[in-house]
Amino acid sequence: MRFRLFLLAFLLLYGSTTFAQKDDSQSSKPETQVTFYVMGDVPYKPAEDIELPKQISELPDDAEFVVHVGDIKTGSTPCNEGVYAKVAGMLAKSTVPVFIIPGDNEWNDCANPTEAWKFWEQYFMRFDRRWQHSFRIFRQLEREENFSFVKGNVLFIGLNLVGGRVHDPAEWKQRHAENLDWVRSNLRRFGKEISSLVIFGHAKPVKIHNDFFDPFNAEAITFNKPILYIHGDGHTWIYDRPFTAKNLLRVQVDQGGIAPPLKVTVTDNSTEPFQFDRRNGKPVK
Which one is predicted more confidently, 8 or 104? Predict the structure, then answer.
């Protein structure tokens, strides 16, 4: 009788331990929080006027939203209203919400930046409103093209951070200051409840952006959670950590005529939550 009781107790203890071990291993596997797609620097060529709508129509079913990180034409293409209308029409055919931020080719590098900005506002401001979606979008009062939202415990921020020429030094400086204010205000509001941060910009980080990136780097160190800065501008794939804040990862997407929209998956992994799929057979690092 005692042996039977001992055996029963042993089996119960062993079973509960095995279950706990199995449960621990399952919980350690990163869980996907959100999946989205990013494109940039497209369409540039006539062939890409055909390719971009195809890419939009062939977005995988796991896409929750798409972001175009600017440059809807080449720098040599005139900034005529028809270009803005054409690309807006292409992106509007997406079955999931599309967010877009400005690039230098359709704004500050234009012969008439003031007119070009009016076209951008007319066709792309609050572009995501074309879809019925459940995202709670916040926009900066001083700069409505800057947006933010939280999805899957991830904070997403879109910024008007362009490459190209400094068409107006005062505007350039003020915009960078307002971009930094927008990042800071969102971190104050959501920083404690989120597990990671994704920032969309157009510009690759160079010296003329130091007045934004230097203080942003300090904010990243204080935040101390994974951050992804993802941008276009350079046309070829870059995956690196050029900042002193080692929690800050930089990715430059392929030009849209070279590769399809980049698939980005954010998991709940506390150190390496960002996963990438260029969908062209090339390595992601």
Answer: 104
- Contact by Cβ (8 Å): 157, 200: yes
Residue-wise pLDDT tens digits, 103-148? 999 999 999 999 999 999 999 999 999 999 999 999 999 999 999 9
pLDDT of residue 279: 83
The closest of 102, 97, 93, 84 to 56, measured between CA atoms, is 93
Nearest in space to 71 (alpha carbons), one of 232, 261, 230, 264: 232
Q: By C-alpha distance, which of 108, 52, 119, 56 is closest to 85?
A: 119
Say what the pLDDT of residue 30 is. 81
Helix (H) or strand (E) holding 251: strand 248-252
* Strand bridging mode 196-200 / 227-231: parallel
Q: Residue 277 and residue 260: Cα distance in Å, rounded? A: 10
> What is the widest separation between alpha-carbon atoms in the chain?
95
DSSP state letter for 8: H
Buried b (16+ CB within 10 A) or exposed e, 78-108: ebeeebbebbbebbeebebbbbbbbbbbbbb
Q: Encode pLDDT of 92-103 as tens digits.
A: 999 999 999 999
Predicted TM-score (pTM) above 0.85: yes
β-strand partners of 200: 158, 230
For residues 157 and 139, what is the distance between their CA atoms, to the nearest angstrom? 10
DSSP-derived pairing of the beta strands 66-68 and 262-267? unpaired
Give the H or E element holding residue 188: helix 169-190
